[in-house]
Design brief:
Helices cover about 40% and strands about 20% of the residues. By secondary structure, it is of the alpha+beta class. It has a three-stranded antiparallel sheet. The longest helix is centred in the N-terminal third of the chain and has 20 residues, at about 25-45. The termini are far apart.
């Protein structure tokens, strides 16, 4: 992992390099850099960029809410967690989130669940065969939707009702025993 970080640092644009180096741990630096490289490869594969376009020139700006935007006509979203990286591109707004399945200990915190899930969602989680997967799927759906909308996770108190008011977005969710991933797109 250290070799990949050392190899990618000089290849990415300065702003991505600075973002990667803000991570304290090598794993965070790796995910930040590797996800940018994966975005770059997707953009070339789907003809948004010519194959000769240098990775170091793939820069972005951020709007007031912190949503990144490329100078080309494509939307993107990046997410990473331990041992998983997810990247999505589309011509319409898109958001993606990947998370490790939540621990049962985290779900035992009633205050946390009240802040992040509506009453109906809490019932769905409690009634599911695997509450940790149910919670993580709902969480990734919410985060993917927030990313697609470009509003950011500014106030946790708005999250419980977020999925009850989904308009103009489609949600797709996938999970394994260890991870859940959701994509929100128009």
């Amino acid at each position: 992992m250290q070799a990949v970080v050392a190899e990618l640092l000089p290849l990415v644009p300065l702003q991505r390099r600075e973002k990667a180096l803000r991570y304290k741990h090598l794993h965070g630096q790796y995910c930040c850099l590797r996800s940018w490289q994966l975005l770059y490869e997707l953009l070339i594969k789907h003809d948004y960029l010519p194959a000769t376009f240098p990775l170091s020139e793939l820069t972005y700006t951020e709007d007031a809410a912190g949503k990144p935007h490329l100078s080309i006509a494509v939307e993107f979203s990046i997410s990473h967690t331990k041992n998983a990286i997810a990247v999505a591109i589309d011509r319409q707004p898109i958001g993606i989130d990947v998370e490790m399945v939540a621990s049962a200990k985290r779900l035992a915190d009633a205050h946390f669940l009240e802040r992040t899930m509506s009453a109906g969602e809490r019932q769905k989680i409690a009634a599911s065969a695997d509450p940790t997967i149910a919670f993580t799927e709902l969480w990734t759906q919410k985060e993917a939707l927030v990313k697609a909308r470009g509003t950011g996770l500014t106030a946790l108190d708005t999250i419980p009702s977020l999925l009850e008011h989904v308009q103009d977005y489609t949600l797709h969710t996938f999970h394994t025993d260890a991870y859940a991933c959701s994509i929100a797109h128009r």
